[in-house]
Amino acid sequence: MKKVDDLMESAHELKERGLKSGEIADELNVSRETANWLLTHSSTGTDEGDEAPGDIHLDWSAVGSSSRRLSLVAEAMKELIAEDLNEEPDAVVGIAKAGVPLATLVAEKFDARLAEYTPRKQKWGEDDYDELSGSFSRNFAGVDGARCVVVDDVVTTGRTMTEAVRFVEENGGTPVSAAVLANKSGKTSIDGVEVNSLVGVVRVE
Prior knowledge:
Keywords: DNA-binding, Glycosyltransferase, Transcription, Transcription regulation, Transferase. The chain is α/β, with parallel strands linked by helices.
């Protein structure tokens, strides 16, 4: 099990490698607030009274490091999505970075088009977060006129999923379902779109 000190060390190592704060949050599967806290503290001590954000780190590298395990997880996600829909989707939207491999396999199982969405947190470093915008990759399918399923690895606060759902709508698509490996937010729907999760995480305090 990773300790907080290990996460701090990982965050600083990623920062030294040139990753932006938003990318670090994504790599460690923690919220933006937690990533900031990890980057501004060290294992030698923290400011008195400055408590760590309430968050849970999820390490799913045992799945991600195996194409077979990833395919099996994608099959389970596809079944969850299919139970939620009356008809199959036209496109699957993967949220970069970690949601894209899962979305690729889910799209293959649905025989659907694949779109890639880069959320604004991937671009967030020293910039004002509210001034940034997400984007679709032109190397993948568009979503105009498509019934879309949005796929990510982990929902932490729900902000990125909300952003992706709204961006699909702004670009002419209809988000009909969402699926994630793990849901830390406790939200079962976002902007009226049901969020299907293989694992639900509840923090008991």
